[in-house]
Amino acid sequence: MATAFAGRPSLIRSSVVSAAAATAVGAALDALFVGRKSFWEDEGSSWAFAQGSVSNLKHAVLHVDPNMTLYYGLLHLWLHVGDSEGAIRALSGIFAVLTAPVIYLLGVRLFGPIAGALAAVTFAVNAFIVEYAQEARSYSLVTFLVSLSSYFFVSELLRPSRRTRVGYVAATVLAMYAHFFAIWVLLVQLLTLVVFRRDVLLTRRCLSVVVAIGLGYLPAAAQIARFGHANIAWIPRPTFRTLVHISARLAGGHWALLLIALASAALLGRSAVRQTAAQWRIGFVLMWLLLPVLLSFVLSFVETMFYPAYLIVSVPAVALVVGGGLAALVERGVLERAIAAVVLVAILALSGMELHQWYTTALKEDWRGATRYVLTHEHVGDHVAFYVPHAQNPFDYYVHLSGSPGPAVNDIGGGPPRSGRVWLVRLHEPANSPVVTGFGRRLAGAGYALISTRMFSPPRAQLAVSLYAPRG
Questions:
Q1: Radius of gyration over alpha carbons of the chain, in Å?
Q2: Any domain includes 293
């Protein structure tokens, strides 16, 4: 299916131009309004872990959050470029932009230049990708690295060389240190060899690569064993509705985009039955599309892990499957080409709708507004306390941007301060929760009265600032 037009230089040139245009459009989408939304809790943690000294960074990745070690290290260096919301998020945007040409090259290797160009377009306009290209977390980085790993993986199977093996090992190991859930893509690659390419599975080259990756993974494995499930125990157990909702998000946000991806997968599966030579390529992308999502869903009934951002490693497969499916239509005839054109227009239109919703809807916690509210109304001697300790990170970030020292931080477990007003910041805790009411009673017992409470968007985050002052 990949070679119908592969020998035409004009087609290759057109596909390169299309992929370059898709990359440019993706860069514009990733940069648009990048600094408009406030940092939320996790982005504040990224800044807190990466800023300051190397010892602060080392403590964070060894004792607090080892899951994004590579990203925190890169962000530590990147902060010298700038520390505004837009500047910090730009690091993620860069990796999202770099992923589009990798998707193109991988698509060309798998299914030909038409598929590569269409995959790059599909990836660049995916609203889920744009969302995480505008977030100061490692999800964009791990997407880039698993795509690069898969490019070298496919290249090695097509034309083995020392260069591709070195590139594959480097990208695969680095991906694990960008996010532990990169392991899903390595599993897919191993299954591809077991199911479709057993001829290379036990070769010396393959075994040396497996050993190199295993050695590279040892420090990460030690950290996973030490931390266990604790850092993601907050994820709720999924339902079938959750499965459909998250799958649609990965496809670009709209249920129709999910249907297009599934129809493309069915079309590729049908092609695999007819074309033996293409079976391992099609099998690889279909497993990449389905296995991370389905296995995460099933395993979440033992240990919860089914969370949209953790499954971003499957989004390149969405683009490749759609690109391959549309290319298969293009290569069939005039009617099929017309259908492919209509589907492509639908993808662009639906993606535009989802992007508009992302740009205009306040989905992130408004820590910018909450911190500004406290700093604007602060008095000398005020204290601030946090129900969720790591919620202090985004607050500290905006205090840092303001140039103000901000109020002194009071340990909520240590009881009320002896003097001064208290700003109580709660997150993910309703006003009637035992934690909130218990601290309120301790403040009342110490002679404090509730003066005001202000909520900040979005409502589901339960981000609120309450001011308590001594009576009289």
A1: 25
A2: yes
Beta pairing class for 463-470 and 448-456: antiparallel
Position of tokens 């230049």?
113
Residue 208, domain member (yes or no):
yes
pLDDT-derived band at 413 (thresholds 50, 70, 90) equals low
Q: What is the largest CA-CA distance in the chain?
A: 86
**Structural domain harbouring 417:** 367-470
Q: 164-172: long-range contacts at Cβ-Cβ below 8 A with a sequence spacing of 24 or more?
A: 165/205, 165/208, 165/209, 168/209, 169/209, 169/212, 169/213, 169/216, 171/145, 171/146, 172/145, 172/213, 172/216
Looking at per-residue pLDDT, the higher value among 442 and 377 belongs to: 377
What token pair was written down for 333? 């005839």
Residue with tokens 């202090």, as numbered in its chain: 392
In this structure, is residue 442 part of a structural domain?
A: yes
**Looking at residue 432, which CATH number applies to its domain?**
3.40.190
Percent over 70 (pLDDT), the chain: 97
Task: Please identify which residue in the block is written with the tokens 């390595």.
Answer: 186
Residue 218, pLDDT > 60, answer: yes
Token pair listed for 383: 């204290």
Same structural domain, 383 and 329 = no
pLDDT of residue 3: 47
Query: Is residue 371 located within the same domain as residue 293?
Result: no
Residue listed under structure tokens 């893509």: 185
User: In the predicted model, what is the mean pLDDT of residues 399-403?
Assistant: 96
Token output for 195: 């199911």
Q: Tens of pLDDT along 261-295?
A: 999 999 999 887 777 778 999 999 999 999 999 99
Residue 472 has pLDDT above 80, yes or no: no
